[in-house]
Amino acid sequence: MEQVGQHSFVWGKWSSAGFWAAAITLVLDQLHKWWMILGLGMHEGDRFSALPFLEIVYVKNTGISYSLFDIAKYEWQLVLAAFAAVVAVALWVWMARSATGWLMAVSLGLIIGGAVGNAIDRVLLGGVADFFLLHGFGYTWYVFNIADVAIVAGVAGLLYDSVALSREDDTKGP
Question: I want to staple 144 with a disulfide (CB 3.0 to 4.6 A). Which of 78, 98, 148, 155 is the partner?
C-alpha cells in the first residue's frame, strides 16, 4: 500500500492541473479542426485571408514537424499516432510522479493534449490537419494548428520552469 504523501504511478499532486490543460487543449484543437472541415466545408488546399498577416489554409501534414519523414501511407500515420500515444502516456507518468508545481503540470498537459489531438487526426484523416499560416515582411512560416501551439507553449513552459527552479536552487546556497 502506498504511503500518504507519495505520488501514485498515474496520479500526483499536480495531475488535476495537467489533466485539465490536456483536456481543454484536446477539445479546442478537435473542435477547431472539425469546424474548419465540416462547418466551413474546407478541403485540402482551400485558403482564405483572415488578417493581413494570417491566412487560413487547409494542409494535411503526413510527416512530423516541418513535414520531416513525409510518408502519406496510412500505415505510417498509424505508427506516428501510436508513437504519440506512447509519448503522451510517458509524459503523463512523468507528470504524476515528478511534477514540482502548477507550471510544470500545465506545460506537460499542453504537450499531452496537443500530441493526442494530432494523433487523432492521423487516425481519422490520414494526417494532421493544419490551418494557420503566418506571413509578413516577405517571410512565410509553416502551417500549424492549435495542438502545435499548445505543444510549443508546453515546451516553453517546461524550459522556463527548469530555468526558474535552477535559479531558485542557486540562491539557496549549499
Answer: 148
Determine how many CB atoms are found less than 10 A away from the CB of residue 85: 14
Report CA Rg, the chain: 18
Provide mean pLDDT across the span 84-100.
Answer: 96
Say if 129 falls within a structural domain: yes
Number of domains within the chain: 1
Q: 85 in a domain, yes or no?
A: yes
The helix-helix angle for 102-125 and 15-34 (nearest 10°) equals 30
- Supply the pTM of this predicted model: 0.88
| 65, 87, 121, 136, 151 from 132: Cα distances, Å | 15, 25, 16, 13, 15
Query: Which residues are identified as catalytic?
Result: 130, 148
Q: Compute CA 45 distance to the chain's CA centroid, rounded to the nearest angstrom.
A: 23
pLDDT tens digits, one per residue of 160-170: 999 986 555 54
Residue 70: what are its φ and ψ, rounded to 5°?
Answer: -75, 105
Q: By residue range, what is the domain housing residue 136?
A: 57-166
